[in-house]
Amino acid sequence: MNLKQMVGIEAAKYVKDGMIVGLGTGSTAYYLVEEIGRRIKEEGLNITGVTTSKATEQQALNLGIPLKSIDEVSHVDLTIDGADEISSDFQGIKGGGAALLFEKIVASYSDKNIWIVDESKMVDDLGKFPLPVEVIPYGSQQLLKLFKEKNLSPILRLNKENEILKTDSGNYIIDLHLKKIDKEQTHDLATWLNSLAGVVEHGLFLNIVNLVIVGKGTEPETLEVSR
Ligand SMILES: O=C(CO)[C@H](O)[C@H](O)COP(=O)(O)O
């Protein structure tokens, strides 16, 4: 079993009958969704899923997981998702899979958030992983220019066909290659990005996670985050 599978299966244990569960996106969340599908089929688990991307929606539908959209549910009990980086103070970068917008919306309306990662994602400071910023196409060249002027090393994300990548909402992603985000500056950076016209969302997920399940060795490690 690989580390992503290990944490996906471990996290699925937190899913209980009757819950409304946010289903994350990416290669780690994939295993969580598979395990929930297995439990529905083999154990009669009864849940409603809220997906965070078209890819996860398709996977969940194939597995027969009952789904509702975020606008059809009264609340979300628990969301389980992957992450690209988690700092020593449990802030995160997400959006490597371009699903940050829906992921942040679902996470924001969740009573509890669990992140599942292999140990390579645990870092001291954020920023080695490029910070994704989702922007609407209109004005995106101006944002690229602004980010360049601010020395934030922006790169417009392309897909495998070398075309501009479009998110599930038809937006673009600009990745900021920052190398390191000082802990004291993380909140200011998030506030500044939120203030820019044309920025829809950014990949800084601050003060969101409640539990981190880390895959290492033969056993997952569970880290409770006190907020
Ligand atoms: O934020 C995400 C998608 O937008 C993913 O959760 C993140 O990129 C981690 O993905 P993976 O588990 O494949 O490493």
UniProtKB/TrEMBL annotation:
GO molecular function, one term: ribose-5-phosphate isomerase activity
Reactions the enzyme catalyzes: aldehydo-D-ribose 5-phosphate = D-ribulose 5-phosphate
Keyword field contains Nucleus: no
Functional pathway: Carbohydrate degradation; pentose phosphate pathway; D-ribose 5-phosphate from D-ribulose 5-phosphate (non-oxidative stage): step 1/1
Alphabetically ordered keywords of this record: Isomerase
Superkingdom of the source species: Bacteria
Positions with a binding annotation for substrate: T25, G26, S27, T28, D81, G82, A83, D84, K94, G95, G96, G97, K121
EC numbers for this chain: 5.3.1.6
Listed CDD domains: RPI_A
Principal EC category: isomerase
One Pfam family here: Rib_5-P_isom_A
UniProt xrefs under InterPro entries: NagB/RpiA_transferase-like (IPR037171), Ribose-5P_isomerase (IPR050262), Ribose5P_isomerase_typA_subgr (IPR020672), Ribose5P_isomerase_type_A (IPR004788)
Active site: E103 (proton acceptor)
Biological-process GO terms, alphabetical: pentose-phosphate shunt, non-oxidative branch
Assembly description: Homodimer.
Record function comment: Catalyzes the reversible conversion of ribose-5-phosphate to ribulose 5-phosphate.
HAMAP family, per the entry: Rib_5P_isom_A
Entry's family note: Belongs to the ribose 5-phosphate isomerase family.
Record-given protein name: Ribose-5-phosphate isomerase A
